[in-house]
TrEMBL record:
CDD domains: ABC_MJ0796_LolCDE_FtsE. Keywords: ATP-binding, Nucleotide-binding, Transport. GO terms for cellular component: membrane protein complex. It comes from the Archaea. This is ABC transporter ATP-binding protein.
Length: 247
């Protein structure tokens, strides 16, 4: 991957949907997500969190502004190129796991490797190693319906990481888990972040967001403020909506 400082950069990004009349989902959002950082996104329902994730994940394109993923302007790519970028540079973890029911845990983890020009044996070794790292060495040949919710989320995390992406996006990753299992999964997120993975997590839960280095608070399609949780960062923890790009 290119050696850029930011995994993701949004510059004056707006997104408008037309449903009889215009709906302004995002309005002039600028945000830098440094490589290796851990960012949480919070805000009321309908404030633009899902739209922001879709743009960062190259599942949608902005109405105006620029979204760069690992130094590449996503808006300037064709649909096929964006698909390949998603497959190679972005990992996804969903609240509902989104595992293929007829594939084993190992086969589910290997799916994103279809975008990689890597020998089959190496792909399998990588997938197996990640399942071992998330504590599922003895579940590689189990199907999703044979796994608990926490185990399925661990498979989803391993799948998100299998291509060593520039960024991992997680949408309410602990929403379907009990308290004990949630803590185990969030501990895994923290472990991978400490190893250098760039994480962006959308959550409604304050205790989940507090695992991050900073919390980006959205309101009415704009960044209301950025709350910094990393004690080593001496910069001001809040930024109002009119102060320009967020570092």
């Amino acid at each position: 991957m290119p050696g850029t400082q930011s995994a993701v950069s949004l510059t004056d990004v707006s997104k408008t949907y037309y449903r009889g009349e215009p709906v302004y989902a995002l309005d002039g959002v600028s945000l830098e997500i440094p490589r290796g950082s851990y960012t949480a996104i919070m805000g009321p329902s309908g404030t633009g969190k899902s739209t922001l994730m879709n743009l960062v994940g190259c599942l949608d394109t902005p109405t105006s502004g620029r979204v760069s993923i690992d130094g590449r302007d996503a808006g300037g790519l064709s649909d096929r190129e964006r698909t390949r970028l998603r497959g190679s540079e972005i990992g996804f973890v969903f609240q509902t796991f989104n595992l293929m029911p007829r594939l084993t845990a190992l086969e589910n983890v290997r799916l994103p490797q279809l975008f990689q020009d890597v020998p089959r044996g190496e792909r399998t070794d990588r997938a197996r190693t990640l399942l071992e790292r998330v504590g599922l060495a003895d579940r590689t040949e189990h199907f999703p319906n044979e796994l608990s919710g926490g185990q399925r989320q661990r498979v989803a995390l391993a799948r998100a990481l299998v291509n060593d992406p520039a960024i991992v996006l997680a949408d309410e990753p602990s929403g379907n888990l009990d308290t004990e299992t949630e803590a185990e999964v969030l501990d895994l997120f923290s472990e991978f972040h400490e190893a250098g993975t760039t994480l962006v997590v959308v959550t409604h839960e304050r205790h989940v967001a507090e695992r991050a280095d900073r919390i980006v608070h959205l309101l009415d399609g704009a960044i209301e403020r950025i709350e910094r949780l990393d004690a080593s960062d001496s910069t001001d923890g809040d930024r109002d909506r009119s102060s320009g790009a967020a570092p």
